[in-house]
Amino acid sequence: MSDLFWAVARRLRHASRESLAPWEVTPSQLRALGTLMRHGPVRPGTLAGHLGIAPRSATEVVDALSERGLVRRETDPDDRRATLVVVTDHGTEVARAIRGARAAEADRLFAGLDDADRAELERLLRLLLAEPAPDQDRPTDASASASSPATGAR
Question: What sign for the dihedral angle of Cα 138, 125, 116, 8?
Fold first, then answer.
């Protein structure tokens, strides 16, 4: 089953890259743009924190977005020594267009599923997202069933 999951994930990544190509935006740039649209203007270090990347990497992403006119740097009105990253009107338009293209691509990918299958897939994906990541203190299904055959898998 994990092979199937990763095969679908690869297919989604490939489709995502293809849907971004017309706008010459990378997945990491789109992530940053989306984060800025959700959070509003933020300092580059804050953006890095939201993205879980090093501040230097955030600077590179912001530089690339800025060169394309998708974001701009502005002086922080609360601290004139600091800079905020702000999405431009063009950046908002591009992000909306990409969101539409990605939704259309997802619709094509899931076109073979009827409404009941889509609802079940959504339910399962939400369940997986809600499940905390396994930690080392909690036994896996295999180790739990090996050490306690009576209980079996969860």
Answer: negative
Q: What pTM value is reported for the model?
A: 0.72
pLDDT, averaged per 10 consecutive residues of the chain (154 residues), comes to 89 84 90 96 96 95 97 96 97 94 87 93 90 56 42 39
Write out 101-154 in H/E/C secondary structure: HHHHHHHHHCCCCCHHHHHHHHHHHHHHHHCCCCCCCCCCHHHHHHHCCCCCCC
Q: Is 80 helix (H, G, I), strand (E, B) or coil?
A: strand
Residue 81 bridge partners (DSSP) = none
In the chain, the domains with their CATH numbers are 2-130 (1.10.10.10)
Could you identify the residue written with the tokens 């999951």?
Answer: 5
